[in-house]
Design goal:
The protein has 294 residues and is of the alpha/beta class. The chain is built from 13 helices and nine strands.
C-alpha cells in the first residue's frame, strides 16, 4: 500500500469509516519527497530509538521501522489506532500506544522502554504545538533531537528575533534549550485533507549546554514569562506586577539597574543574553521574595 497516494489514503479511510477530525488537527502526509526529507534529517537506522507523536496513518512510522529503528508511537485517536495496527502489522520493532501525549510522564515512559537518547518525530497540530514542545523540552535529557512538522507561523515564532511581533517567551525557551534548523517549507498540498496554511519541517537539536549562563533557571524563565505576559508594559511595570516573581517596583528597578537595562524598555526588545543578565542580577531579590509564600 502506498500511503503517499491520495487515492489509496482515501480508500484506507473509507475502509475504516474514518473522516479526518479537524478538532484533532488531522492532516495526513501524502508527499513522498517530504517523507524522504523527514527520514534523512531524522537519521533513523538500526539501534536508534524513535518516539513518534501523532503517527496518523503510519506513513512515517512504517518507513522508520523499515530503517531498522525501534519506534514507539503515541496516538490519541482510537479509530486511527485500528488503522495503524493494520498498516504496521508486518513492521518489526514498533509499539503503538493509545494515549493523550500531554498526559504522559515522558521521563518515566521512556525509561520503562530502555532509556538512552531518543529521537522525536512528529506532525504537531497547531492548537497544541506549544504544550507538546514544552513537554518535550521539560524532558530534554531523554532526547538528542526533534524533527517536527509545524505550521509555518509557529516556525516563524521559533526563530523570531527581538523587537519583532513573532518574538516571545517560546522563542527564548527554544533558544535556551535547542539549536534550531529550518529544513524545508511544506505546501498545504502535501497533506490530505489540505490544511488552511502551509507548514515547515524543523529540526531541534538539544543543546548539551545552554547558550547563556544563569544562576537560577527557575528565575530566568519566570522573568521571561513576566516580560512577555504583559508585553505592552514597560519592563519595570511588567516585572513588578508579576505574581510569579513577587517583586515590587524597588526590587525590579534594582535588578534592571544592576543589569544595565533601561526600565522603560519592553520585554520583547531583550535578547536572551540580556534576560540572562537580568536573571543573574535579580537572584538575591528573588530568593528573598520566595522565602515567604505569596
Amino acid at each position: 500500500m502506498n500511503l503517499t497516494s491520495p487515492t489509496q489514503v482515501k480508500r484506507l479511510l473509507a475502509k475504516y469509516g474514518i473522516r479526518p477530525k479537524k478538532r484533532l488537527g488531522q492532516h495526513f502526509l501524502i508527499d513522498r519527497n517530504v517523507l524522504n526529507r523527514i527520514l534523512e534529517v531524522s537519521g533513523v537506522g538500526p539501534d536508534v530509538s524513535v518516539l513518534e507523536v501523532g503517527p496518523g496513518l503510519g506513513v512515517v512510522t512504517r518507513e522508520i521501522c523499515n530503517s531498522g529503528a525501534r519506534v514507539t508511537c503515541v496516538e490519541i485517536d482510537t479509530s486511527l489506532v485500528r488503522v495503524l495496527r493494520d498498516v504496521l502489522a508486518d513492521a518489526g520493532g514498533v509499539e503503538i500506544v493509545t494515549a493523550d501525549f500531554l498526559r504522559i510522564d515522558l521521563s518515566r515512559f521512556l525509561a520503562e522502554r530502555g532509556g538512552g537518547k531518543w529521537i522525536v518525530v512528529g506532525n504537531l497540530p497547531y492548537y497544541i504545538t506549544t504544550p507538546i514542545v514544552t513537554l518535550l523540552l521539560d524532558a530534554k535529557q531523554c532526547f538528542s533531537k526533534m524533527v517536527l512538522m509545524v505550521q509555518k507561523e509557529v516556525a516563524e515564532r521559533f526563530r523570531a528575533k527581538p523587537a519583532t511581533s513573532d518574538y516571545g517567551s517560546l522563542t527564548v525557551f527554544l533558544e535556551y534549550h535547542c539549536e534550531m534548523e529550518s529544513v524545508m517549507r511544506v505546501s498545504r498540498n502535501a497533506f490530505y485533507p489540505a490544511p488552511e496554511v502551509d507548514s515547515e519541517l524543523v529540526k531541534l537539536k538539544v543543546r548539551e549546554k545552554p547558550p547563556v549562563d544563569v544562576a537560577d533557571e527557575r528565575l530566568f524563565f519566570r522573568i521571561v514569562r513576566a516580560a512577555f505576559g504583559k508585553r505592552r508594559k514597560t519592563l519595570l511595570n511588567a516585572l513588578s506586577s508579576s505574581g510569579e516573581l513577587g517583586w515590587g517596583k524597588s526590587e525590579a528597578l534594582a535588578a534592571l539597574s544592576q543589569a544595565g537595562i533601561d526600565p522603560a524598555r519592553r520585554g520583547e526588545t531583550l535578547s536572551i543574553e540580556e534576560f540572562a543578565c537580568l536573571a543573574n542580577a535579580g537572584k538575591d531579590s528573588f530568593e528573598c521574595s520566595v522565602s515567604v509564600p505569596f
